[in-house]
Structures are given as C-alpha cells and as structure tokens.
Amino acid sequence: MRKTIEFAGEKNLPLIGQGTWYMGEKAANRQQEVVALQAGLDCGLSLIDTAEMYAEGGAEKVVGEALKGRRHSAFLVSKVYPWNAGDVDAIEACERSLSRLKTDYLDLYLLHWRGNIPLEETIRAMGSLQQQGKIRHWGVSNFDTEDMLELWSEPGGQHCATNQVLYHLASRGIEYELLPECQQRQLPIMAYCPLAQAGRLRNTLFSEPVLLQIAQQKSISVAQLLLAWVIRKEGVIAIPKASSVAHVQENAAALDVQLSENELFLINQAFPPPQHKVPLDVV
Ligand code: NDP
Description:
Elements (H helix, E strand, L loop, with lengths): L3 E4 L2 E5 L15 H13 L4 E3 L8 H9 L8 E6 L6 H15 L4 E6 L7 H13 L3 E7 L3 H9 L9 E4 L11 H7 L4 E4 L16 H10 L3 H9 L5 E3 L6 H9 L7 H10 L13
Parallel strand pairs: 3-4, 4-5, 5-6, 6-7, 7-8, 8-9
Antiparallel strand pairs: 1-2
The protein binds NADPH dihydro-nicotinamide-adenine-dinucleotide phosphate (NDP).
C-alpha cells in the first residue's frame, strides 16, 4: 500500500516527493528534466522541492514548465536564501520565485538555512506572505535541535510546518535527538539526499553487500531500498532528485516497499543508529 502522510494541510501526501537540485543548470537537459518531473506527477509524486538557489532560479523555471496546466496537482515547495529572509526581502524573493514558477502561490516556503537575520523577523515575513496568500505554509531547513528549540520559543515559531534536513542510511545522526524532538511535536521532517548524493559514505551505499543482498531478495533496487528505509520512520518524507523517467518510476514504486523486522535488523547491524548526539550533517 502506498505510504502517505498528513502534511501542511494536505491529507494524503505520498511520502516520496521530487527534488530538483542541479536541474536547470544546462539548457540541453531541460526538456528531459521537465519530462521527468511530469512523469513523477503522473506516478503520484506530487511534492516538488525546489529553491531560489538551485541554478540561481533555473530549477524553479524547469518546475514552472513541468507544472504548466497542472499546478493544482502538485504540492510545491521552494526555499529562500537566508540573506533574503528579512521583512521586505522575503516578500520580494518569494515574488521572484512565484514568477519563475509561473504560479501565484507556494504550498510551502522554507528558510534554506539559518543566517544572520533574527528568526523573529523571518517568522514575521512568513506570516505576511501567508496573509497575502503567496504561501500556504512555511518551514525551515538545516536546523539542528538547538535551532528548533529556539524557533519554537519564538512567538509564532510553533507554526513551522517542517524541518528539511540531510538524512539517509549512512547519515543517521538525527535519529538520536532531532528526529524524536520533531516527532514529539508532530513536526514532519523532509529528508534530503535520501539517495546519499551527499553526506557520510557518499556514493558507496550502492555497492554495500548487505544492501545488494536484501535488494536482490526483494527484487527491488538499492535505490528503492534506501528510499523505503528513509520513509520507514513516522513523519519522514523523502525527496530524491531524479532526472530520468526510469529513475522517477523506480523511486515512486518504493512507496509500496515494506521492510521486515529482520531486514531492518540486518541494516542496523551494517549501519548502526547513533548512540550519542551527532551534529547535523549538511551538504
Ligand atoms: P539524492 O540523494 O536525491 O540523489 C540524487 C542522485 O541520485 C542523482 O544523481 C540521481 O540521478 C540519482 N538517482 C535518482 N533516482 C535514482 C535511482 N532510482 N537509482 C539510481 N540513482 C538515482 O540527492 P539530492 O542532493 O538531489 O537531494 C534530493 C533533493 O533534496 C534535492 O534535489 C533538493 O531538492 C533537496 N536538497 C535540499 C537541501 C537543503 O539544504 N535543504 C540540500 C540538498 C538537497 P539522475 O538525476 O540521473 O536521475
């Protein structure tokens, strides 16, 4: 059965979405990227994650093209640079994103990482954007536990809808403290780099014997195993980036993969969960 979550006002959002980092970099790849995102929407991967940073707006333009005529079937997430997250600048940055995305609202707008602008000011800016109908919800990214505690202590900070952080099988640090804290407050986490494009053991997971063996026994790919593993935890959404239809379809099928207790045990043996606080991994 396809795994879904109630997220930022959306009742049955599939737990796997689509990332867009490195899209919009090369004109020659643009059409393929548009087609891949549309194939993802066709498979039900309705959450699309982008940012003003990616290709300096180029990725948002690709997403805008992919969403032509089907904006309402997508759950659209973009992110603001920390230095644009102030009272006036955030409004202007959001308007620029909306223009590139060819839409008049975002479902979710995230502070990409913490910068020098006081959280209080960013919360106020996010509130203004909500009042203006430009964003439905807001959240943060790359916030470790202390940042989240500070955010929650600010007036309005409890309206934060998510924290998007690096999380994959070889980068499990959040399981010790950040993830339980967020789960306790029913704050969903968006896991970026779920296929280990960055983070610990980058690029080695796909040749890991235990993963190859489990994947083979289940007749799935290692990528599907990695995604199924990320979304096994309550309140965790994975946003793999894929620029081919084949990869997108493979990733969507991971929504149906169930991992047994024994498989999880074997995975834990090879990639033990953290036994102490580990600073948040970031790209
Ligand atoms: P991922 O871990 O999603 O890995 C992406 C890589 O995996 C690409 O090279 C892609 O190749 C490949 N891939 C995708 N599907 C498959 C598959 N089924 N089999 C084999 N390989 C596959 O890394 P990202 O860094 O892209 O992270 C995902 C998303 O998270 C980003 O795109 C972005 O939206 C977000 N992000 C957010 C950050 C933040 O600071 N908030 C930081 C980093 C990412 P191909 O393109 O050829 O399909």
